Amino acid sequence: MENNHDVLLKVDHLCQYFRLGRKDLKAVDDVSFEIKRGETFGLVGESGCGKTTTGRTIIKLNNITSGNVYFKGQRICAGIRSYKDEISNARRAAAKKIKALRAEKDVDEARKLAISEEIKKINEELGAIVDKNRALIQDARSNSKAVDKQYSESLVEELEAEYAEKISAATGDPEKLKVLNREYKSRIRVAKKSRLITQIQMIFQDPIASLDPRMTVRDIIAEGLVINGVTDKKYINEKVYEILETVGLVREHADRYPHEFSGGQRQRIGIARAVIMRPEMIIADEPISALDVSIQAQVINLLNDLKEQLGLTILFIAHDLSVVKYFSDRIGVMYFGRMVELADSDELFKNPLHPYTRSLLSAIPLPDPVYEKKRVRIHYNPIAEHDYSVNAPSFREITPGHFVYCNDAEEEKYKQMVK
Amino acid sequence: MNNKEVKLSVNNLKISFRTDAGKVQAVRDISFDFYKGETLAIVGESGSGKSVTSKAIMGISAVNAIHEGGEILYDGQDLLRIPEEEMHKLRGDKIAMIFQDPLSSLNPIMRIGKQITEAMLLKNKANRKEGRATFNKMLAILSDTMKKATAEKSDSGYSVEQIEQYIKTFDNFNIQAIKLENSYNAARTAAEEMISAIEDLIFLTEKKQKVDVGAKLAFISRKLKEIDDKYFVSGNAEILSKHVLALDEAKRAERNKFKASDFVKKLVGAGATKKEASAETVELLKAIKATAEKLLDEPKYNFFRIGYYVYKKPETDLSRMPADEANEIAIKFLSEDYMDSFLALEKIAIQYSFNKSFENKKIAVTELRNAIDFFKRGDFTAQEADALCKRVNKSVVEAIDKLAVIKDNVAYTFGGALEREIKKYFFYIKNNAKEEARFASQTAKRDALLAKGKTVDWKIVPKSIIEPEKQIESIVSVLSRVLGRFNADIEAAGSFDADKRCVELIDYLKEKASQVVYTLTPRIAKEKAIKLMEEVGIPEARMRYRQYPFEFSGGMRQRIVIAIALSANPDILICDEPTTALDVTIQAQILELINKLKREHNLSIIFITHDLGVVANMADRIAVMYAGKIVEYGTAEEVFYNPQHPYTWALLSSMPDLDTNEKLDSIPGTPPNMIYPPVGDAFAERNKYAMEIDFEMQPPMYEVSPTHYAATWLLHPNAPKVEIPKIITERIKRMKERGGNHGE
User: pLDDT value at position A222?
Assistant: First the structure.
């Protein structure tokens, strides 16, 4: 699957737990999905269901607990909890077996020999499992570090190849050579500092809280470039102006402070800050829910335009279902840390299968008074709806591209429903 | 207008804010009526003045706010002018508000439970006092009118002592009746709660879920004991006491089982216990549930009748009798012994009071006409005007029918309004010259600077001048408003129904009496608070009750604020974007809750939001506001299916719905700076359909239908025909085709 060029981001059995006293809070529990290049993937669910956490984990704002995230086929995050669990489980099982064997009484010599033989075998097996998982842990740890290194090395190589040609062409012209050399050095510096993760940028929900009130707009937008090692003031300014114009602001705004802007403009600044890094993917975490109605449409249109202009892939997290429907190609529905349904947006709204999705869809308010007065909300009670005591559920494909979290009996039922 | 009761009316409200940069005109001359039991939605962007309006109604405008004019009439008072102590009585109790930002309305260092119950307890105390006062006042007026009426009619055969006796009896037995009814109702609620708890427990047991059986059974048995009301239990006392014993036994058994299993668990290891009710307990619970349901189905006693019976004959016990029979006996006794003659007397009083007010209204009408002529003539001194004002006010006050339950806002606030307008007249006569001089000097200064070729970065503050003629017009309008009201009353006098009025008055007194009797103890308050918290969707309410606000997420906090506002059982509820921060499921839940409360208490709601989907759900009528003005106003169907103002179009088309695929029509630009409000239509600059006149003159309100108004020049007969944007027409077409069925 990693070789598939269509898939830009692949989230594989992602788990994100938080310590809560002695227990773990399973904010995201075993979520898998793929985002194809150029598409918009919507993530919906009620507040506290883990959609924001998913976004933040992908961009490494949280330390992933277990599971893998692949970006452009490279593993950018890998959790080690599952491997550790496997080791300790295996140890426990082995200890139990050994204890049972040792507890045997009144045995003759032959049996004793057999027992010690068996214990040896168990230990060997255990050792194999431990080694395997330790290797995996090692791999995961080094992988998430090596990715950035590889990425910057590949960039450096590209640059070297590019400039080797140019420099060889310019030999004999000392002036030109000097300029080229300077350019080459600064670009190499940037390339060395580049990290793969900067290809994913995030737009935050609250445009007031996410902008530093003591920085000018120019500083805010340019911060990413500066961190990446760009020192050329002129180049930075040009970039900032260009981006400001792309998001519908003007040059004069660059020297102002965030408090001087309206909510919609502030969100544009947030978008500009994300876009200036030329990312391939943007995680938009409820970018419009803090905005006014008339401004919401402006921002949605802007995101749509940027998507076309820059060929962005967007992970769109929101709870306003009509906006998600309008904006996304595919939608994933989350409930209490689990992905319960995933389908094309039209398909999802036409054939909602999971009872939670149906309840969610029945709660959307629409600007139609006659319908609204009649609308009956479907209540979702997981205990009443599902009986998972016999057959455990998993994430299954009902029709091509339409996944639902269900068990065997429900799978049959859903298949009937689709027909 | 229609015959609905006007709960609150806002007339020509103007509010500005004093800021460093100048005067920001937040609300510019808006008027609307707001009826009992309806939901009025105010829609608009932030900064359009919707929150400012609602805050003015609550009496919590910011310190730099200036009320430049207008009035907010509620219950015979002008809310802009009553002192803070009076406002304090209304706020939270009669008019409650849910704020946009939950953090600003919660105290960070008080536990949630305390914050919810605090208001309940305080308000209950104040309510009882206030209920007592109004109850006594109304009774006093009634007895007064009765005495006057009988004194005039010498053949009526009632003496003063008799009347006093009647009134006293009414007072006493009414209170008695309400006490009985309250205890009955409490038992009923307890039964309902018990049934739901039993259903819950049985459901969870059947589904083999983990459940704390001990706690559940304790709750059920507590409720079972609370059911013990004489009238509710009626003839079933034995069965219930048997149930109580059996349940205690079951509780013990469950506890023992759990203990044993705990012991077993230690021996065997984990996985041995799963707490669930045993089969016998489930059987018992089912039996209890059946009994409770039977009790709930029994017909209700009429406590108004029984209260009198018990008051007169305390030794007899009606509770053993079936409800129908008891009611029958009680009503016979009541009407023979008391009610018939009391009602007759009351009717005489009401008729008398009405006739009196009718006569006085006729006098007042001539007085008012004279006053209008006087002011129209102009040329009067302050003393003359004052004297006339007092005289007219006196006759208007006399013309008020004091026994009418629904207060006539216009007549009650007439005196203050007239006095204010007259004062304003004399103020402006003095002030106009000063303002002219200031304006002239500022203009001269600016012109001089400009002539020198300097750039001037300040603007001239526009002059605040009101021409005396204009002011006289507003004086006359105050007078003629009352005149119109009185004329209408005189015309409608033929349809006066004394019997209906009698019933209304008695209902009013009953309501006040129930206010007096209803005592809230901290324990009941806690139970109520927890129930309310569960209703607004807070899980584990009992645990959450003891937490602090910072332990809650944003959505949870908002729900707490909603619970606090609802706990006071207000008359008018103002919701300022209550669900904007919540996700759809919770939003739907809270809207359902608000709608339910509205139905149950005939609540009037002002709903401020920018989510048109929510508006469609909640609103009976919609007011669209832009830049401090109402630009469109109508019923929900009219505004959604036949929008007239370009701003409404823009709002509708900037929201995607589930079928939208085309590019959204966003509104370009930002709202205007209200320090220098535009001369013409405020929306003109952002309006695709703006005509030249839009930049020059403000459009008047055009009537589309008797309930639908819009302020846009496009409705002028000479205006060019403009098509409603395609995105909206298509959407409306889709909606109409479906006729309210989506997705099927």
Answer: 92
Give the CB-side neighbour count of residue A356, counting CA atoms within 13 A: 21
Give the C-alpha separation, B402 to B145, whole Å.
10
pLDDT tens-digit profile of A260-269?
Answer: 887 788 888 9
Instruction: State how beta strands B39-43 and B621-626 pair.
Output: parallel
Tokens encoding A338? 């689990």
Contact B561/B106 with Cβ under 8 angstroms? yes
Confidence band, pLDDT 50/70/90 cuts, at residue B739: low
Question: Could A297 and B204 be called an inter-chain contact, meaning their C-beta atoms sit closer than 8 Å?
Answer: no
CATH topology of domain B1-109+551-585+594-624+636-661: Rossmann fold (3.40.50)
Cβ B611–A365 below 8 Å, yes or no?
yes
B469 CA: distance to closest CA in chain A (Å): 42
Q: Is B741 on the interface with A (CB under 8 A)?
A: yes
Contact present, A287 and B604 (Cβ < 8 Å):
no
Q: Compute the distance between CA of residue B5 and CA of residue A18 in angstroms, rounded to an integer.
A: 56
**Which residue type does A154 have?**
S
Phi, psi of B463 (to 5 degrees): -75, 140
What pLDDT score does B291 carry?
Answer: 85
List, in sequence order, every residue forming a beta bridge with A285; answer none if it has no partner: A317
Q: Which of B615, B640, B664 sits opposite A300 (nearest CB)?
A: B664
Predicted TM-score (pTM) of the model is 0.77
* Mean pLDDT score of chain A: 87
User: Do the beta carbons of residue B18 and residue B62 sit within 8 Å?
Assistant: no
**Nearest-5° Cα angle at A364, A362 to A366:** 120
Identify the residue with better confidence: B343 or A221: A221
* H/E run at residue A275: helix A263-275
A351–chain B Cβ distance below 8 A for any pair? no
Say whether B652 and A319 touch across the interface (CB within 8 A).
no
CA dihedral over B304, B305, B310, B316, signed as positive or negative:
negative
With an 8 Å Cβ cutoff, are B640 and A368 in contact? yes
The answer to whether B622 contacts chain A (CB < 8 Å) is no
Say if residues B664 and A308 touch (Cβ distance below 8 Å): no
CA proximity to B205, closest of A383, A393, A409: A383
Size of interface A-B (CB pairs under 8 A): 150
Tell whether A376 lies on the interface with B, counting CB pairs under 8 A: no
d(CA B568, CA B565): 6
User: In chain A, what residues touch B652 (CB-CB under 8 Å)?
Assistant: 367
List chain B domain ranges: 1-109+551-585+594-624+636-661
Spatial separation of the C-alpha atoms in residues B490 and B361, rounded to whole Å = 7
**Spatial distance between the Cα atoms of A141 and A159, rounded to a whole number of angstroms:** 28
Give the pLDDT band (50/70/90) at residue B272.
Answer: very low
List % helix, strand, coil for chain A (3-state, nearest 5). 55, 20, 25
Is the CB of A368 inside 8 Å of chain B's CB atoms?
A: yes
Backbone angles phi, psi at A203, to 5 degrees: -110, 130
- What is the per-residue pLDDT across A340-393, written as a single tens digit (0 to 9) for each? 999 999 999 988 999 999 998 888 888 888 888 888 888 888 888 888 878 888
Kindly provide the residue ranges of all beta strands, DSSP E only, lying in B591-662, ordered along the sequence: 604-609, 621-626, 629-635
Choose among A264, A367, A384: nearest Cβ to B657.
A367
pLDDT given at position A281: 92
pLDDT at B40 over 90: yes
- Pick from A284, A280, A279: which is nearest to A268 by CA? A284
Residue labelled with tokens 């085709």:
B737
A282 CB burial (10 A radius; 0-12, 13-18, 19+):
buried
Q: CB-based contact (8 Å) between B673 and chain A?
A: no
Mean pLDDT (whole number) for B680-696? 85
Q: Residue B355 has which token pair?
A: 């006739």
Return phi, psi of residue A19, to 5°: -70, 130
